[in-house]
Design a protein that fits this description.
This protein has five helices and nine strands; from the N terminus they run E-H-H-H-E-E-E-E-E-H-E-H-E-E. By secondary structure, it is an alpha+beta fold. The radius of gyration is 15 Å and the shape is globular.
Length: about 150
């Protein structure tokens, strides 16, 4: 598998995957939220000043197989799970981030079955559980990767 960044011509395939994995991502539950996400995919970094928005732009990193985008951020199509796609994406992300700084991610809490795979992935890469939070009205937990 190879990793590449999404291109403007990939937007329809990208949004099809986002729609598939949206039920597992708080903040993408409504048609309005999906439309906002689609609109943000084409913005430049100057037009997307906040860290969370720049992170969403970086999420356009994808693993194309058979001409179809199979991963959105850490949301991997159900047909392509357990093939190392999420690990490949996280490896790429960590290679591009400043490892002299704390890296924080957020996922589902321990008691939520949707958090089993992401929590295991983050632990595999050395992240440790952090504070309990609420994002988009949904209970989450941060995971921290300490500076090298």
């Amino acid at each position: 598998m190879t990793l590449m960044y999404g291109r403007p011509e990939d937007i329809d395939a990208w949004m099809a995957l986002v729609a598939e994995v949206a039920p597992t991502f708080p903040g993408l539950e409504t048609p309005e939220q999906l439309a906002e996400h689609r609109a943000s995919c084409g913005l430049s970094d100057a037009e997307m000043p906040s860290v969370s928005e720049r992170t969403r732009r970086f999420a356009a990193c994808c693993c194309p197989l058979a001409g179809i985008i199979k991963s959105a951020a850490w949301g991997v199509s159900s047909a392509y799970r357990r093939r190392g796609v999420a690990s490949m994406l996280l490896t790429e992300a960590l290679a591009r981030l400043d490892r002299s700084q704390m890296i924080t991610v957020s996922t589902f809490r321990e008691n939520n079955p949707r958090g089993t795979a992401p929590r295991a992935l983050y632990r595999k890469f050395g992240f440790v559980a952090g504070e309990l939070t609420v994002e988009f009205g949904y209970p989450n937990q941060t995971f921290l990767l300490y500076p090298q």
